[in-house]
């Protein structure tokens, strides 16, 4: 007989919260009948300034099967939170979940840019990706390097050796689910190896909070500038250089100037 679910939740607080957030977002999407095009990430939307989609695409799922598969894998990978004795643990999990979500999304866009501009494959201009799989594949990879003896349990009955799980899952999902984003999953694996091998390091509470703060600022500003949501308390106006927008908080008189550089089907992740 297994342990009561309550004890599992207590031992995996961050994983449990993320699963709760993704499930709540899925329920909201279903209730409001929101389509993938409203929350997904595509190259075309990104160059139009919809940078907020890097976040919304990661935490959104359109189908129940997609949600269950990702959350089942994430629940198994939550063992990272219990491995503080080898340098992982809850803080490590939270810090690098943030890194995985942002960098894997940025890497996907970089791959799209290369394929479109260099190889003239226009198909990737409008491909829209949604799902938490980038982060899931990233954690598979980190765990495969840090704790290769672990197992990845899916749906409570399927078990894979974690050492081969990233590439096995990459190939399996690409064959079984034609709509699965190969590039999205691959980007999670690449960022996962960069973290596991120490190429991305130095994350602590200070940098995590700073990064989160800038993510919130960029998220809100891009929502406002793209016209996706009208924040009444924000007014964005151009300064001397039209490429450098200023963000004014109405009523407070404070102005924040940010650097902004121009950037030259559906896939589930």
TrEMBL record:
The keyword RNA-binding does not apply. One of its GO terms (molecular function) is serine-type endopeptidase activity. GO terms for cellular component: membrane. Residues 49-200 form the Peptidase S54 rhomboid domain. Keywords: Membrane, Transmembrane, Transmembrane helix. The keyword Ligase does not apply. It is a multi-pass membrane protein. It is found in: Membrane. Its main location: membrane. Pfam families: Rhomboid. InterPro entries: Peptidase_S54_rhomboid_dom, Rhomboid-like_sf, Rhomboid_protease_S54. The chain crosses the membrane at residues 12-29, 58-80, 92-115, 127-145, 157-177, 182-200, 206-223. Belongs to the peptidase S54 family. This is Peptidase S54 rhomboid domain-containing protein. It comes from Salix brachista.
């Amino acid at each position: 007989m297994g342990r009561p679910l309550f004890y599992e939740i207590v031992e995996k607080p961050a994983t449990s919260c993320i699963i709760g957030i993704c499930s709540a977002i899925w329920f909201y999407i279903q209730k409001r009948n929101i389509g993938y095009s409203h929350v997904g990430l595509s190259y075309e939307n990104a160059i139009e300034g919809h940078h907020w989609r890097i976040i919304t695409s990661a935490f959104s799922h359109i189908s129940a099967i997609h949600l269950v598969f990702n959350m089942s894998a994430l629940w198994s990978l939550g063992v990272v939170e219990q491995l503080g004795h080898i340098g992982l643990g809850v803080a490590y999990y939270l810090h690098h979940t943030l890194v995985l979500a942002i960098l894997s999304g940025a890497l996907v866009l970089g791959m799209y840019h290369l394929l479109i501009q260099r190889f003239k494959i226009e198909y990737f201009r409008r491909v829209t990706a949604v799902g938490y799989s980038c982060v899931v594949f990233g954690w598979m990879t980190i765990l495969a390097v840090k704790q290769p003896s672990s197992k990845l349990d899916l749906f409570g009955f399927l078990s894979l050796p974690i050492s081969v799980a990233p590439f096995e899952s990459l190939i399996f999902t690409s064959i079984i689910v034609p709509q699965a984003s190969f590039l999205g999953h691959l980007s999670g694996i690449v960022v996962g190896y960069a973290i596991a091998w120490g190429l991305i390091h130095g994350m602590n509470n200070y940098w995590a909070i700073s990064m989160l703060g800038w993510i919130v600022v960029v998220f809100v500003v891009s929502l406002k500038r793209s016209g996706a949501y009208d924040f009444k308390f924000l007014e964005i106006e151009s300064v001397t250089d039209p490429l450098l927008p200023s963000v004014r908080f109405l009523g407070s008189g404070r102005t924040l100037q940010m650097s902004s550089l121009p950037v030259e089907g559906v896939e589930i992740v």
